[in-house]
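Second attempt. The first submission of SCN4B protein had a stray character pasted in from the spreadsheet, which I only caught after the job came back as garbage. Lesson logged: always re-copy from the clean sequence file. Corrected sequence (206 aa) follows.
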Amino acid sequence: LPGLHVFAIALALEVSVGKTNTVMALNNSNVLLPCIFTTCIGFQDLVFTWYFNSTEMIYHGKIKSKASEPIIVARNPRVEFVGSTTGKENNISIVLQNVEFSDAGKYTCHVKNPREKNAQHNATIFLTVVQKMVETDNTVTLIIVGVVGGLIGLLILFMLIKRVVLFIIKKTQDGKKECLVSSSGNDNTENGLAGSKAEQKAPPKA
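This time the job returned cleanly.
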């Protein structure tokens, strides 16, 4: 039945190593290998194991119930458990100490839950070991940012020039108006004076 099928999926055991499945570590440093698991019906005597390159077991633990923390069954001396299963998340992450170049490879977090009819699930993370961290080449990004910044700068400059030009044109036009007003005023005065002078002249005697 479709309803039962959906119910079965909801109960499935899930294991995750986070958003990315790749980790980079410096030689001789400690590196965190994250892993969490989820189950809708809870767990009882759950077993989890970390493998290196699918075959070499580096950590093996058992968790009795949600109320108890994991018990170490076996582990590599350089591996330390740093998770917790009594909190909100069932965190079964480990830290690999004093990383060497030979530690680079595939790490698998495997979980088995007897309460879910021995349901099993795993997730894989890939570790790369480097001598020194190389800065990301952001040349393309810098070029894009530079071009965009330059265009914005040009736009602002264009707007400033436009405002200055409009301001100069406005001032020039205002000046011309003043000239026209004063010119026409002079003309009127002259005409007026001329008119008054003409009026002051006595008509010629017959």
